[in-house]
Amino acid sequence: MIEVIYILWLRQLKHYWRSKARLLGSLGQPLLFLVTFGFGFGPMYTRASGGANYLDFLAPGIVSMSILFTAVFSGLEVIWDRQFGFLKETMVAPISRTEIMIGKTFGGATIAMIQGLIVLSLTYLMGFRIPNLASLAVGLVFMFLIAIFFTGLGLAIASKMKDMQGFQLIMNFLIMPIFFLSGALFPLENLPQAIYFVSRIDPLTYGVDGLRGAIAGVSVFGIYNDLAIIGLLSVLVCLIGAFMFSKIEA
């Protein structure tokens, strides 16, 4: 079982590493948000908050955004494999579909983690600082859970789709509200009640809040609460994804 998972994990990493355009292109949007929001809204945030640095608030949100976008689009690998016949060959092999799901989930999550670490390094160049190694370790746990949750979500949805364009439309329809309502770009305090309610049921909210609490020392709901919620949601979405993947037709 471990060997099968490892091979599928390694295949996704090799595919990612060979696609240099994908690696570089996926950094464009996080950089754009960092520069435009960091320098554009930074002075206003500093005045409104009484001197707080907006980059310290923004950096965890942009790292989460990078992980989110990379993770959910891991589902494209399933549709791509289905169109070119690789998925059918995998399905008829003497391995369980759960093993395939786990391998693809870990592969997609690892790629999303790499993207997140690259963006985190870029925030360091812009002046963001993590207090200590312990904070970084806790932050890596939250990054991993965000990656697992949204990779599992992307794979679960892709398992029921055969159209690549349709998958991209659905993902864009889902992930943009998930991102903007997560508190990645603005504080959740003092929001209208309806927006605050939607933010509270957004899974990414707890990933962003936990990551921000770990590496920037600012948390609304508490790091332990965030960890418990995003951890449980990650397990739940993986179980649902494994069930849906077991019903897939190549």
Automatic annotation (TrEMBL):
Q: Which residue ranges traverse the bilayer? A: 21-45, 57-80, 101-127, 133-157, 169-188, 227-245
Entry's Gene Ontology molecular function annotations: ABC-type transporter activity
Where is this chain's protein located in or outside the cell? Membrane
Q: Kindly report the protein's main subcellular placement as a broad class.
A: membrane
| Keywords associated with the record | Membrane, Transmembrane, Transmembrane helix
Is-annotated flag, keyword Transmembrane?
yes
Q: Where does the record place the ABC transmembrane type-2 domain?
A: 21-248
The lineage's top-level taxon is: Archaea
GO CC list: ATP-binding cassette (ABC) transporter complex
**Topology within the bilayer:** Multi-pass membrane protein
PANTHER family according to UniProt? NODULATION PROTEIN J
What name has this protein been given in UniProt? Multidrug ABC transporter, permease protein
Which species? Methanosarcina barkeri 3
